[in-house]
Write a structure and sequence with these properties.
The protein is mainly α and about 300 residues long. The protein has one domain. About 75% of the residues lie in helices and about 0% in strands.
Length: about 300
């Protein structure tokens, strides 16, 4: 079933890219390319042997998702013999697409596109080149048009779904490598379901808070770029002015309550959802992964400080 679904997604992605290239439906290449990659990835996952059920009865997906909030150890234990991921990713993609469209509606395509273009023009490599500045300026009308395009906005859901399949498959591979290197035992499908389901509670909480804050705040108080990711301030970044200290601001932003919650969920998932994963292996893996994420965030802030200010 998953193999056929993966083939279907890849074919749809190819059709999207073809329609975009032929200018029949411009803008479809953005969701089309990730769909092709995600489809091929799902086909590859279908060849991986699932872990032995050992006679354990399958818990419904709905119960498993609910248990993540109240009894995560039990939820991940249920995934150990019956790993799954599709429904959770679909729901997270839906939340991401809904919030993105609400954000564009509240902020308007003009405000978001113009702010992004202005910040791009401030980058040293652009600011020091007349040709580059001219090219960026010429793209301003198209950037506004793309954000306002209903086809492109509908494609947010597709892009989010495909992107998350790729992201969590990569994270699962990292979990698997760490577990095996430290003497643990973990099936890739188990690692994949752990990566997906550990992210689900954080995604739900962030979506609810982001949506609530979005409609409470005035547009002038919302950052047109950073706000697309999160409006939740569950860290100490408010102590620093982003334009003055972009790297420190980013570091403080990553050390958040939701981030700590995600670390704990990953560790809990690895410990209870893997074959033989000790608490030490689970926590070491989870903390190391988060540390690498912080490092990349800091490097991005150092390389592109204008988009943070």
């Amino acid at each position: 079933m998953n193999r056929l679904a993966g083939i279907g997604l890849a074919v749809v992605g190819v059709v999207f890219v073809a329609l975009s290239i032929m200018s029949i439906v411009p803008g479809l290449s953005q969701p089309g390319v990730p769909l092709i990659i995600a489809g091929l990835l799902i086909v590859g996952l279908s060849f991986i042997k699932a872990p032995d059920t050992e006679g354990v009865e399958r818990t419904s997906t709905a119960n498993t998702l609910v248990n993540l909030f109240f009894s995560p150890s039990e939820a991940f234990a249920a995934l150990k013999r019956h790993p799954r991921w599709l429904v959770a990713i679909l729901l997270m993609a839906l939340m991401s697409g809904v919030y993105t469209n609400l954000f564009i509606y509240k902020m308007t395509p003009e405000r978001i596109a113009n702010y992004t273009i202005d910040k791009t023009l401030e980058m040293p490599m652009i600011a020091n080149s007349e040709q580059a500045r001219t090219q960026v300026q010429e793209n301003r009308p198209q950037a506004i048009k793309d954000l306002a395009d209903p086809v492109g906005r509908a494609g947010q859901f597709i892009s989010s779904f495909a992107g998350q399949v790729i992201l969590y498959a990569f994270l699962a591979a990292v979990f698997l490598i760490f577990a095996l290197a430290m003497g643990g035992k973990l099936n890739f499908l188990q690692a994949f379901s752990i990566a997906v389901y550990a992210a689900f509670p954080v995604a739900v909480i962030r979506f609810i808070l982001n949506t609530f804050i979005l409609f409470l705040k005035d547009v002038d108080d919302i950052h047109p770029i950073r706000g697309q990711q999160s409006l939740v301030t569950d860290n100490l970044s408010f102590l620093v002015i982003p334009s003055d200290h972009p790297v420190i601001f980013t570091l403080l932003s990553t050390l958040s309550l939701l981030g700590i919650y995600w670390i704990w969920l990953n560790a809990t998932g690895l410990k209870n959802g893997g074959e033989t994963i000790s608490g030490t292996i689970a926590w070491t893996t989870s903390l190391t992964v988060y540390g690498v994420i912080i490092l990349f965030a800091i490097l991005a802030a150092w390389a592109f400080p204008t988009f943070i200010s």
